[in-house]
Amino acid sequence: MDSTEIKHPDGQLDKAQGKVAPAARSASAKRQPSSKAKAPPTPEAVIELPKRPYRTHGGVHAAHMKNTAASPSEELPVPSRVVISMQQHIGKVCEPLVKAGDLVTVGQKIADSDSPVCSPIHASVSGKVKAIGTLLLPNGAEVKTIEIETDGLQTVCEDVKPPEVKRPEDLLAAVRESGLVGLGGAGFPASVKLNYHTPARQVDTLLINAAECEPYLTADCREMLESPEDVVEGGRFLLRMLKLTRVIIGVEGNKPEAIAKLREVIASRKLEKRICVLKLKAAYPQGAEKVLVKACTNRTVPIGKIPADVGCIVMNVTSVGFLARYLRTGMPLISKRITVDGSAIAEPKNVIVPIGALMSDIAAFCGGFREEPRKVLMGGPMMGTALYTLEYPIIKQNNGLIFMGQSEAAAVQPTDCIRCGRCVSACPMYLTPVNIQHLVQQRDIQGILDINVKGCMECGCCAYACPAHRPLVQFMRLAKSMTAGMA
Amino acid sequence: MENNTPATFSVASSPHVHSGENTTVIMQDVLIALVPAALMAIVYFGWRTVLLLGVCVSTCVLSEYVCRRVMKRPQTIGDFSAAVTGVLLAFNLPPTFNPLLAALGSVFAIVVAKQMFGGIGMNFVNPAIAARVFLLISFPSQMSRWSIPFFYLSRNADTDAVSTATPLAQMASGGAISASYMDLFIGMRGGCVGETCVLALLLGGGYLLLRRVITPEIPLCFLGTVGVIALLAGQNPLIHLMSGGVMLGAIFMATDYTTCPVNRAGKIIYGIGCGVITMTIRIFGALPEGVSYAILLMNILTPHIETLTQSAPFGKEVA
Fold first, then answer.
1. Please, which of A52, A168, A270, A377 could form a disulfide with A402 given CB 3.0 to 4.6 Å?
2. Quick one: which of A272, A229, A275, A277 has its CA closest to A251?
3. One CATH from 3.40.47.40, 3.40.50.720, 3.40.50.11540, 3.40.630.180 for A10-17+45-57+163-329
4. ipTM of this complex
5. A-to-B residue pairs, Cβ atoms closer than 8 angstroms
6. Secondary structure letter of residue A243 according to DSSP
7. What is the separation, in whole angstroms, between the first and last Cα of chain B?
8. Residue A388 — pLDDT band, cuts 50, 70, 90?
9. CB-based contact (8 Å) between B121 and chain A?
């Protein structure tokens, strides 16, 4: 394998990073056979940092359209009103801790729940709670919201102070209080993810997901260009606190400046032996968790399992950068950098917006529309959700806001499947979407179970590649819901 | 549009972008790839080629149109798949074949082999191959009357005077082959309309590969198997590869999306199978040529090959 030249005995683990003596290199520490790379390394194992990505399957070469990669982030002026959703994460929905009429300050915790799989929500503005409302989600469910009328002062809450983190337990508590969720789009509570580092699982690797493979999106790219120190610092902190072996930052090759910048910071802090930047091929979906784990470590996450089961914790690059800032300032997650782009928006740019800001305010800040938007996407165009209104609030895991004009949003009528097999070669999970659609149409439950539709992550490669414009992702979702809860 | 109601957005399932490919473009690419071979066929076999191409394409498209109308299904002649079938069928007929019978074959291809099974994407055998085999069985003498190239220039264009045996037929009867390698490569030999010019077919195949319409697995495995078996049988692999319909079959017929496996391992097995059956018929069979039967049989096996070669999903523990 093309993995490593940098090895040293793991006995040096607890030493301050950068001070690992190359002289301590054990003569017996030979290159690991590739079969061993699958199992989480034992403490005697050597540190392997990949030089080149490992092979992954499928994917599509979607046009990158990273129009905003070179434009520095701008801050959205505090809007007059924000609407904060009670569900900004995977897990239990939060309950408001405030009521109409209450005054809130920036960083004040305004919603939480008693469930561990949950992330508290903080006020992103200072002002007065106007109402506890409801929001219709794109999936048809309803969720409570806290509407805040801003006073424009942005008074910071007195609770906001840097957390004391001495032990891993402190870290988990602090991360929970920070309100951090997976900022790459999934929104999984970070405190739960970091807690996967149990003796049974033996996590050794932190993968920082900076692939950002979705077309249009450059928010993570800007994070790396604007605060590379935070990214490296966050990675270094987790490495030390969770007693991990290595940190791999996976970046798609279409962001050479970000790669150079991160490498520069790593080198200046003498962290090259523990933290590396891996240049991935720029092909969607490099940033999909399981694909990233394979590309960076050659480990395969079994269906129904999580990366921690093969010794990896995967965190989005902006999440890691935020963590470093949170530890420094104590300011919880109240704002987010999002990429605003698409054929309908006048001035595509990266905007730092308070959580709960409405899309209409953001669009206005970006110069309004050059043509009437026909489709509004929360997230990137491959996996994003189409919204039904512009009066929709930003949530924590938003990283893109795409306004598509008439021609870009045009729907094409599907034609008959010609069995060309493009969906099969595009699927990173080695599934056969062409057959799944037939099985769904025939309501063949056993057939669906047999072909492991659960492995589908809905990346959209099949539908992207399909010349007959078949709605394959919808068929996949149908197949999943038809077999939900079955073995 | 909708009276300028700015609050109306279209909502749809992801993904919201597309590669831009569509069936029509793919079929157009196949037609473009067939152009060199068609031009060479017109050079070698003259107006007869034009006649056959015209009859087959128009009958195929017309049959498809009528079928879709009768079955009250959306019209599909616009995707050019019927035109592709027409060209391929014409390519698989002897130059002096009766145009009326060619029309009958075209009707068989579209109505029986394609539309009766549900139209594009649903047929279990390649319509052009099915029609060729139908004609081969129904009109064996008509289907094996070969003309030498440029016969139409001959003073007494009497069919008997200019007919020839194909290289494969010469080989099967143990005689010497009258064509040189160069003749075979550029198509100076008797044979079906579109199968003779190896150079033109390779050009078309290169175009299809370049445009990623086809992947190399099937042609390579098909041709490779034919070559290897010829070597093992002590025969000349180059003559086997450049005569008969193997080039046309491997590049344009066996790669038909609908009737070949969708996965890579399946394509490899399918290609090898085509080669094995072709050579079995050529060496042991009573017929000089077996490409059509080989592809037809492998078409029928395709669902089973797919089931057997189903790849394990990523992360699925292999039992």
1. A377
2. A277
3. 3.40.50.11540
4. 0.90
5. 152
6. T
7. 57
8. very high
9. yes
